[in-house]
UniProtKB/TrEMBL annotation:
Protein name stated in the entry: DUF2125 domain-containing protein
Record key words, sorted: Signal
Location of the region described as Disordered in the Swiss-Prot/TrEMBL record: 385-426
Origin superkingdom: Bacteria
Membrane-spanning parts: none
Keyword field contains Signal: yes
UniProt signal peptide: 1-21
InterPro entries reported in the protein's UniProt record: DUF2125
Length: 546
């Protein structure tokens, strides 16, 4: 998850969702300021005016982010009117503007201005200063990009996103930590763009989503600096979770330009999906991502391809759960993936099966793996920049111990096979490359399910492996059991089609006989039992293979 993008999106969502408020207009404004500051943003007002029951803020600026990724909003006016019954109505200016800027991976600065139009917006807030509920109504939200500046070059970037009929609630409970929960529904969402790259390549796209719903919760500890140090914020108690559901999604695009050989190329594509759902959770207890998709289809044609690419699925899902904090104890993890009803277009099949000898039934894949792992370093721990580390080393006193270490390094013999004439920088670069080990070490892996159904064959597997007491998962201990159905028939067909060369058929069958044995005579069913022993040996169906 891009956490910078997430926090910036939360800020924008709050801008187009409830501004925090209370029973008086001044409390409304202060609540709003407190909210953005809890996310690491700064809020400044250019002018304040109180007339009767209405507080008006002008030239409001909200800024946040890190030096290499920042976002800012400029709001011409915010009017907060007390209704006399303990409620406050907040209205933003019809249009606000903003800028996203920073430095890309190549070290080049970029700047992307944008505008958000939201005519007719209104928020009604009730409650007490410590516990507020905000009901908001946004008939239209139009997000627009026009240009992008990268380095000294400015290029057009006409992209628009429109959201209709957004309503919902935003609830805040002040305290340490401050707690937020929200729920929002939107009508149709539309998007379009017509982008031209520096090389004159053009991409035009458009699409729509038939409504969306989002909800979630967040607890923000006092003083947390989410943008600057996510790890510290999590340890202080930062926790968040959310769900996004979308209706049917349709999109189309076309492109034109030149390929790597400077030859003209063009194409078009479209996607038609019935809906999807995304969810996430993040706290010091771990992070998780889940995604699920209903039926969808994709088509692509290109002048570079002699045939169209098209495929469809009935459904798909993804589930990943990981620990994030260092611990001497092993912590649970999960990875699951499912793809049901995958079909390919005839043009793709005909590339290798023009005669239709292979079954073209929908394919499926199910994978479910759980286990435990040790986290040897906090997942969101940010190592100090190289220059900081160098400064730290420079600041160390040059005492006798340091001199001795330098002498030992200078006089140490070169490793066997090393080139003594190689530049020292190469060794330093290699050391830097190798000095970043994985923060996660698997301890136990359970294959709860592996099921593949394709080309008329089926493969199923399950088992469990764990690291030995004196080793790691490079020499696991445990068993894996697998069954195969229709594999021999598939090998015969692939051989007859020439996809497996005749001189290799025997080798394939010998390999299968080494790892698999028949379940029952006369049936195309095989099984494999792999055993991983404490001494590092491996057995397949009782026969040692290592």
């Amino acid at each position: 998850m891009n956490l910078r993008l997430t926090s910036s999106a939360l800020a924008l969502a709050a801008m187009t969702a409830p501004a925090l408020a209370d029973v008086t207009s001044e409390q409304v404004w202060q609540s709003w300021v407190d909210y953005y500051q809890s996310l690491g943003y700064t809020v400044t007002e250019g002018k304040r005016d109180k007339s009767g029951d209405t507080l008006t803020l002008s030239e409001v600026a909200i800024k946040g982010g890190t030096p290499d990724s920042q976002v800012s909003f400029a709001i011409p006016q915010v009017a907060l009117s007390e209704s006399g019954d303990g409620k406050v109505k907040t209205v933003f200016a019809d249009t606000l503007t903003g800028v996203a800027n920073g430095t890309d991976v190549d070290g080049e600065s970029y700047e992307v201005p944008f505008s958000v139009a939201m005519p007719g917006n209104a928020i009604v807030t009730s409650g007490a200063p410590e516990d507020m509920t905000h009901e908001f109504d946004y008939p239209t939200i139009d997000f627009t990009l026009t240009t992008m500046k990268s380095g000294d070059k400015e290029t057009p970037l006409p992209i628009k996103v429109g959201v209709a009929d957004s309503t919902g609630t935003f609830h805040i409970v002040a305290g340490a930590p401050a707690k937020y929960d929200y729920a929002m529904k939107s009508g149709k969402i539309t998007f379009s763009g017509d982008v031209t790259a520096e090389e004159a390549d053009k991409v035009k796209f458009e699409g729509s989503i038939d409504g969306a719903e989002t909800s979630g919760e967040m607890a923000v500890p006092g003083g947390a600096k989410i943008e600057e140090d996510m790890n510290a914020a999590l340890k202080a108690g930062l926790a968040m979770n959310g769900v996004f559901k979308a209706g049917a999604l349709v999109a189309s695009f076309d492109f034109a330009g030149t390929d790597e050989a400077d030859q003209p190329t063009s194409g078009a594509g479209k996607y038609d999906g019935k809906g999807f759902e995304l969810s996430y959770a993040l706290s010091q207890d771990g992070m998780s991502y889940q995604a699920g998709s209903d039926a969808g289809s994709f088509e692509l044609t290109s002048s570079d391809l002699a045939f169209p690419i098209n495929y469809a699925i009935e459904s798909g899902s993804f589930d990943m759960q990981l620990p994030v904090m260092q611990s001497e104890e092993a912590q649970p993890f999960k990875f699951a993936y499912s793809l049901t009803g995958l079909t390919l277009g005839d043009a793709i099949w005909n590339l290798f099966d023009a005669q239709g000898q292979l079954p073209r039934d929908p394919a499926s894949l199910d994978l479910d793996v759980t286990g435990t792992m040790k986290v040897v370093k906090d997942l969101f721990d940010q190592a100090p920049p190289a220059e900081d580390a160098a400064d730290t080393a420079t600041d160390q006193p040059a005492d006798g111990a340091a001199d001795q270490a330098t002498d030992q390094a200078t006089e140490a013999p070169a490793e066997e096979g090393a080139d003594p004439t190689a530049p020292a920088g190469d060794a330093e670069g290699m050391a830097e490359f190798e000095a970043e080990p994985s923060p996660m070490e698997p301890v136990e892996v359970n294959i709860n399910q592996f099921a593949l159904n394709a080309l008329g064959a089926k493969v199923n597997a399950e088992g469990a492996l764990k690291a030995p007491e004196s080793g790691d998962m490079t020499t696991p201990v445990g068993e894996i059991h697998a069954t195969y159905e229709g594999v021999n028939a598939l090998v015969d067909k692939l051989g007859a089609m020439g996809l497996i060369p005749e001189d290799q058929i025997m080798g394939v069958r010998m390999m299968m006989a080494m790892f698999a044995k028949p379940v029952a005579e006369g049936e195309d069913k095989l099984e494999t039992k792999l055993e991983f022993k404490e001494d590092g040996s491996i057995f397949a169906n009782g026969q040692q293979i290592k």
